[in-house]
Amino acid sequence: MAHSCNPEELHGMTVVLETSGPKVFVGRFDQQLGEHYLLHDADVFEDGRDGLTRQAYLAKSAAFGIWPKEKDLYVLASEVSSLKRLSEYRQESEAPGR
Q1: Rounded CA separation 56/48 (Å)
Q2: Residue 83: exposure state from Cβ atoms within 10 A (0-12, 13-18, ≥19)
Q3: Which one of 17, 53, 83, 98 has the fewest CB atoms closer than 10 angstroms to its CB?
Q4: H or E element in which residue 62 lies
Q5: Taking the model in full, what pTM does it have?
Q6: With contact defined as beta carbons under 8 Å apart, do 73 and 44 qualify?
Q7: Order of all β-strands in the sheet with 70-76
Q8: Half-sphere exposure (CA, 13 Å, Cβ side) for 96?
Q9: pLDDT value, residue 3
């Protein structure tokens, strides 16, 4: 799995857990509990929801925040292909040539 930062340093930050499948999880990172990541005030996005692609959803979420739909969300670490701060997606969408 690709980490842009140490998971222990993410407590309280809004993060993105990407999967190799159609789902992406966004929420406030609490901790890794064994085989799970615990997020608070989270949203689960699946490609195509509301007519958005994953990248469009993440860029919009980075710019305006998310509407949490889950108070507490446990995500299997084995499903996660990437763990990044949500703010990194704002920087990516503002990069020249995008």
Answers
A1: 10
A2: buried
A3: 98
A4: helix 54-64
A5: 0.86
A6: yes
A7: 2-3, 80-85, 14-19, 23-33, 36-46, 70-76
A8: 0
A9: 53
| Contact assessment for residue 86 and residue 63, using Cβ atoms and an 8 Å cutoff | no
Q: Could you give the angle at the alpha carbon of 64 between the alpha carbons of 61 and 70, nearest 5°?
A: 55
Question: How many other C-beta atoms can be found within 10 angstroms of the C-beta atom of residue 62?
Answer: 22
Model confidence over 2-29: pLDDT tens digits?
A: 555 677 789 999 999 999 899 999 999 9
Burial profile 3-41: b = 16 or more Cβ within 10 angstroms, e = fewer:
eeeeeeebeeebbbbbbeeebbbbbbbbeeeeebbbbeb
43 pLDDT higher than 90: yes
Two structure tokens written together for 65: 């925040």
